[in-house]
């Protein structure tokens, strides 16, 4: 009987120690600093045994979505470094991680670009496709009358990057080809790039991509310092226009 009591005295503390270890608050990130990927930087990490998980950047705090213990936070890139503070809370326990999103080079002053863009579209009779001249920090969506969507990352009045999505189905029609070519030519010209060269390179790579259905991206197209990165899916392609 004494042996049993002695054994219990050893086992019970060990059991509670194991329980406390299983419920330990954990928070980690894959890196200490992150670079741009398209219009954003994606901060990745893991979290467990928390009651509340948030991140704060530029004075704004938001909840973090977690899937299977993993999270990915998309932070629009800026012309300045940004500190991202991730905080996990469970009762009186708190874990905090601080990471940096590295700065990137801006494409253009946003107001200058928007004014030139609007003037160009007015001259083409597209008065209903105007860009807003004043924009808050963030990624704005510009939906045109032809149904296409263009995304603009604006930070502190600087145009950091532009993105768009087109379906392969649209590109196989004459109307879709015309809309894409016109939009790309306008944007490229306003950014100082050679739109004709970009379209030529794009057409060449698209043709080669059709022969290789496993490709998920195309080679970067560069014209006068402007980079065009293209990601491929089974139905659509995504184009990111940046200077980084």
Automatic annotation (TrEMBL):
It comes from the Bacteria. PROSITE patterns: PROKAR_LIPOPROTEIN. InterPro entries: Ig-like_fold. This is Lipoprotein.
